[in-house]
Amino acid sequence: MIAYHGTPVGGTRQDGARFLAGRHALVPFPRQDDIGIVADVCQSFVFDNGAFSIWNKGGTLDVDGYTRWVEQWHRHPGFDWALIPDVIDDNEAANDALLSAWPSELRGVPVWHLHESLERLQRLAADWHTVAIGSSGQWSSPGTNPWWKRIGAAMDAICDDHGRPMCRLHGLRMLDPAIFQLLPLASADSTNAAVNGGSISRFGMYAPPTAGQRANVIADRIESHNSSPIWQREAQSEMAI
Q1: Residue 61: its pLDDT value, please?
Q2: For a surface tag, which of 57, 86, 120, 157 has the fewest beta carbons within 10 Å of its beta carbon?
Q3: DSSP code of residue 163
Q4: How many C-beta neighbours within 10 Å does residue 80 have?
Q5: Is the peptide bond before 8 cis (omega within 30 degrees of 0)?
Q6: pTM: predicted TM-score of the whole model, two decimal places
Q7: What is the phi/psi pair of residue 30, to 5°?
Q8: pLDDT (tens digit, 9 = 90+) per residue, 154-212?
Q9: Contact 16, 37 (CB under 8 A)
Q10: CA–CA separation, 46 and 108 (whole Å)
Q11: pLDDT on residue 142
């Protein structure tokens, strides 16, 4: 499983470069601070349209600006894909319209939100090589019992009798071993390392001295685990009790 670490990274630019070297990164449209470092030192990177952050702040995504940004970078050898613009709390028809408007030459990944219908998830999984899964609505907090029940229904809808998903899956904000070890994800992301590398209290009196070193410790712990190769309903059902 590919672990995409969200940027920007705290600390000095040297800290950021050391942390990102050889890793995979996610760069959000509203915060492009580290794109130069990412393009130079990361194995690969993806672009996030920033819909979740914008939704939290009550703003509106600049779809045209985001598309132009992806056009500038999509030929870079490290570019994997970009999340196609979506509106988290809008209706499915509006998000389908955004998918239809996305330029076919740009490697895009659609987002299915947990509050949307399972029928839409099945349709996306049948039509796209990769689908990103985003937590939303009453299931906006990954790892809670209600969330596990909903994600279980989603996996049941798109996995065959052997637990194999119809397409590659990306978990938005799911770079937690307690989560991704139970799901057949091809990739996942979070800002855990970038954000909490600045927190000395997380480590206590034995904290590594710099934010970059602390971020490296968090990322190394995450990357020592892997996602499940298949969806195992029995294992997940224990989490949803």
Answers
A1: 83
A2: 57
A3: S
A4: 20
A5: yes
A6: 0.92
A7: -70, -20
A8: 999 999 999 999 999 999 999 999 999 999 999 999 999 988 776 666 666 555 657 77
A9: yes
A10: 10
A11: 96
Side by side, which strands form the sheet with 111-113? 108-109, 79-83, 44-48, 24-28, 2-6, 187-190, 168-171, 130-134, 111-113
Copy the structure tokens of residue 126.
């049948």
What token pair was written down for 37? 């470092």
CA 111/CA 122 separation, integer angstroms: 12
d(CA 105, CA 234): 40
* Cβ–Cβ under 8 Å, residues 118 and 159: no
Tokens encoding 54: 């914008």
Query: 2-239 has which CATH code?
Result: 3.20.20
Which tokens belong to 204? 């206590």
- Domain spans, the chain: 2-239
User: How does pLDDT run across 162-178, given as a tens digit for each residue?
Assistant: 999 999 999 999 999 99
Q: How far is 171 from 114, CA to CA, in rounded Å?
A: 11
Structural tokens at position 4: 């995409």
Query: Which of 140, 144, 146, 79 shows the shortest CA–CA distance to 114?
Result: 140
Query: Which pLDDT score, from 0 to 100, does residue 182 have?
Result: 97
Residue type at 92 in one-letter notation: E
